[in-house]
Amino acid sequence: MKRNSKEWKEKRAEFLKEKTCAWCGSAENLCLHNPQAVSSSPGRIRSEIYGIAYEQFREIYRQKYQKFELIPTGKHRHKSHPNWHKAATVHRAEPDHSDLEEQYKEVLIKDVQEGNFKKLYNEWLEENRIKELIEEEIEKSREEYESLENVVVLCRRCHFASLKGMDLCPVCRKKYKSLRYETCFDCLPVGRKKEILEKQVEMETEGSVSESGDDIKNEKS
After folding, report:
1. Among 115, 113, 107, which Cα is nearest to 60's?
2. Deepest of 39, 40, 71, 81, by most Cβ within 10 A of its Cβ?
3. Environment class of residue 30 by beta-carbon count within 10 Å: exposed (0-12), middle (13-18) or buried (19+)?
4. Under 8 Å CB-to-CB from 206, ≥6 apart: which residues?
5. From the CB of residue 117, how many other CB atoms can be counted at a distance below 10 Å?
6. Between 213 and 65, whose confidence is greater?
């Protein structure tokens, strides 16, 4: 069913009858919002399945046609310094070498099918019906959307906010906020507001000092 077809428009209109926005309660300019729409779009489905298929074939090709040699990099890590660093590094404090691990890198020394990767990959895609699988998943996604099972009714304003990664503040029910925050700024406790404003002033001050330093350097140069 195409989105601009008469059948779809009638189904959409019937679904929206006597409904209001799930966020703000408005009954005007309503639309259908599917939270999974982006992840289940044809382009995203193709990209994800092809990505998984490529990684699978890359490992098959690696095991079947390539040979690698492990070469030490001269770096290691251990309990007191868990990040990779040169073995010759002198630590300020007495290091704890428990769980000592040497770092190696793989160097390709043999590829019996060099230059044929793309050809073999396309043959593998056909053998495993990857294109058919993609079309099947796209069709499943389309049927799920048209069933309206996971659809949320939102007004145009709330829908636009959702596309920008925001939702309605649960306290005032008027302003929108980023999904990572519990409330909008106006609904934060006074103490929390003060902390945020002080941090902003501190960051702006540091930025001004940095810019001044750069100006001085530029003048000297």
Report:
1. 113
2. 40
3. buried
4. none
5. 15
6. 65
Q: Global pTM? A: 0.59
Q: Is 111 helix (H, G, I), strand (E, B) or coil?
A: strand
Token duo for residue 65: 């046609």
At a CB cut-off of 8 Å and minimum separation 6, what does 80 contact? 91, 93, 95, 96, 97
Cβ atoms 130, 50 nearer than 8 A: yes
User: Which structure tokens are listed for 141?
Assistant: 């996604």
Interval 14-59: pLDDT, tens: 889 999 999 999 999 998 888 766 567 888 899 999 999 999 999 9
Q: Looking at this protein, which amino acid is placed at residue 118?
A: K
**Which uninterrupted H or E stretch holds 153?**
strand 152-155
Query: What is the C-alpha to C-alpha distance for residues 164 and 167, in angstroms, rounded to an integer?
Result: 9
Longest alpha-carbon distance in the chain: 76
Residue 110, helix vs strand vs coil: strand
In sequence order, the β-bridge partners of residue 33 are 152
Two structure tokens written together for 122: 């396309």
